[in-house]
Design goal:
Shape: elongated
Strand content: 5-15%
Helix content: 25-40%
Strand order of the largest sheet: 3-2-1-4-5
Distance between the termini: 85 Å
Number of helices: 3
Number of strands: 5
Largest sheet: 5 strands, mixed
Oligomer: single chain
Structural class: alpha/beta
Radius of gyration: 23 Å
CATH architecture of the domain at 36-130: 2-Layer Sandwich
């Protein structure tokens, strides 16, 4: 019977954890790049020169946009109110309370912004902020 000789006996290196980490990093970068690209450029934010500056963002933050026609969207995906409530509810059930930023057009009617606030409070979200411009650039 022929005997096989192993060249590197005792030098087994399991690459599975390293591959898992690399895939997690790739997914993280894809998701964060996609989030930056999906901001609705048509929304004109209100000026708030006296408001506080937004510093470190919580990675759990959900940005909900309200355009001038009252259309709601997340990452440029248009939603109706029941779809938005379902998304917020499922995320709340999974992660608990998380911050919400409402990015509303300054020409949008208040009732549309109020509807988003009501959806959030009905689910149990209490960390609601509004996006605005500190210094208006010409």
């Amino acid at each position: 019977m022929k005997r096989h000789r192993r060249i590197n006996e005792g030098c087994d290196l399991d690459m599975t954890p390293m591959i898992d980490v690399v895939f997690q990093m790739i997914i993280f970068f894809i998701v964060t790049i996609k989030m930056d690209e999906n901001i609705n450029e048509e929304i004109r934010l209100e000026d708030a020169p006296e408001g506080p500056l937004a510093t470190g963002e919580d990675p759990r933050t959900m940005v909900i946009e309200v355009d001038r026609r009252g259309w709601l969207s997340i990452n440029n995906v248009q939603l109706n109110r029941s779809q938005l409530e379902g998304i917020i509810s499922r995320r709340y059930n999974r992660f608990g309370n998380f911050p919400v930023v409402i990015r509303a057009d300054r020409r949008a009617e208040h009732r549309h912004v109020r509807a988003v606030m009501d959806l959030c409070t009905n689910v149990g979200i209490w960390q609601i902020d509004f996006a605005a411009i500190k210094e208006h650039r010409n």
